[in-house]
Amino acid sequence: MPERCDDEGIAFGRSRKTKIIIDADPGIDAAMAIIMALRSPEVEVIGITTIFGSAHTPDVTRNALHLLEVMGSTHVPVAEGNIKPMAGGVPYIQDFANGLDGLGNIATAEPATKKSAMSACDFLVDTVSKYPGEITIVALGPLTNLSQAFQKEECVVKLVARVVVLGGSFFSSGNANPASEANVICDPEAADMVFSSGARITVIGINVSTQVVLEGRDLSKLSDSSTESKRSLHEMCKLYREWHKKSDLFDGIYVHGPTCLAALIAPSYFSYKSGALRVETLGVCRGYTLFDMGLKKWNGLNPWVGRPHVDVAWTVDASKVLELVLERLIHTDT
Fold first, then answer.
1. What mean pLDDT value characterizes the chain?
2. Residue 25 bears catalytic tag
3. Is 218 a catalytic residue?
4. How far apart (Å, rounded) are the C-alpha atoms in residues 35 and 57?
5. Quick count: other Cβ atoms within 10 Å of Cβ 15?
6. What's the fold here for domain 4-329?
7. Which residue among 23, 25, 29, 187 is the active-site one?
8. Catalytic: which of 66, 234, 256, 311?
């Protein structure tokens, strides 16, 4: 199947800001994406819903509130999500890369603002229902909240404009283990449900996001900034940068979350393929994302036949995405 590019794959309105809910686990990488979104005139962040992953759910909720205070955006509500995966059990926490607090162990002050009284699921359902066809959900963590919202109100699948997901490792090694990417392994059942829901879904896998590298010399520029958000970003990235040195053997960091946001802001930087996407939920390959690109007409049924299609990012203009990330995170005056 030929590659499909921006306008055919993602048709976001350019005449007005796109309303987005960020469903995330901030987390250093997701924190960078949140800061980038708040500095991007193309989008309006109307809420953040939190989920375990980089740290436990109460911790990432606290991190989201802290980020909004640093950015002067405390009007944005934060709704706390699930504390366990869809199938239950102990959540997989990536503290080895993000620190015990999720933000590189930088000991942030307790936020003065409070989380919403609504759960993440209820916030997603209510907001998407309030703005039918207008809300894009940018999912930067495990898909537990989203699967719960889809199950609670089936109409949300049709009412949401699009879901842009950071997840999966398509025909490449995972980053949680050789089979799986971190967001998907946190809740494979939820990911499989969401990918098969029939919602308009765009998936940015780490096979694409690992092509975008923010180098150490760029991160070092943040240390001399007079802007609190930039200084905070520099501090939280120290541990993340050291982990990449040990794990991936380079001086810099992958910017997975910002790359996912770039797919929304600058869709022409990516190309896509469409097909059915399933997630393995059992055995040694639990969390594996296997994509049927439609290259063959199958004889008979299999677990991909008849499933709704999603758009999976296939190529990326990494230099242009990096330029966008640098502009929004480092070269901005705010």
1. 92
2. yes
3. no
4. 19
5. 4
6. Inosine-uridine Nucleoside N-ribohydrolase; Chain A (3.90.245)
7. 25
8. 256
